[in-house]
Amino acid sequence: MAEDRIENLNEEEKALAQTALDVREKAYAPYSHFKVGAALLGDTGQVFTGCNVENASFGATICAERMAVGAAVSQGVKHFVKLAIATGSQPPGSPCGICRQVLHEFSPDLEILLVNPAGQLRRAVLKDLLPLGFSGADLESK
Ligand code: THU
User: Fold this and answer.
1) At 141, is the pLDDT very low, low, confident or very high (cuts 50, 70, 90)?
2) CA distances from 5 to 43, 47, 89, 94, 114 (A)
3) Fold (topology level) of 2-131
4) Local structure of 111: helix, strand or coil
5) What is the position in ligand 1's atom list of the atom closest to the CA of 99?
6) How many Å apart are CA 63 and CA 77, to the nearest integer?
């Protein structure tokens, strides 16, 4: 995974990274204290955000990435170009397996920027993070 710095990004990517860092501050994570923010750029140019929302029943926790996907789909946007994910990890953390699968449903070629408040950046492409992801095509060829 390529490592870089947020300040070297172009203005559009820098803004997406900053949005993810900003929404991370809104995370509700009283149990893990691990805050995550996501900023998802749709093919319409709109940006949808999400943060993790934990629950005392731990399994009811919602990840930041899936919240951003839900926000987009609820606005009729189902094709995504880029996703910035902000964590406090050093180097920046990557999305969990469930979120990879949910993102794969809509955009297997999604470009992902992993960032943290220290300005570290890692780049990934979803299909590299989830090779052979399950898809609707698998259901059709049973
Ligand atoms: N979390 C996310 O929001 N996204 C991920 O991809 C990884 C994990 C959240 C869930 C939980 O609130 C906390 O991080 C620790 O697992």
Assistant:
1) confident
2) 25, 22, 14, 16, 10
3) Cytidine Deaminase; domain 2 (3.40.140)
4) strand
5) 6
6) 19
Residue among 36, 49, 110, 122 whose CB has most ligand 1 atoms within 8 A, to mutate: 36
Which tens digits make up the pLDDT trace of 19-43?
999 999 999 999 999 999 999 999 9
Give the domain ranges of the chain. 2-131
Active-site hit among 3, 7, 25, 65 = 65
User: Catalytic site residue 11?
Assistant: no
Q: What is the pLDDT of residue 142?
A: 72
Q: From ligand 1's centre to the CA of 43, what distance in Å?
A: 25
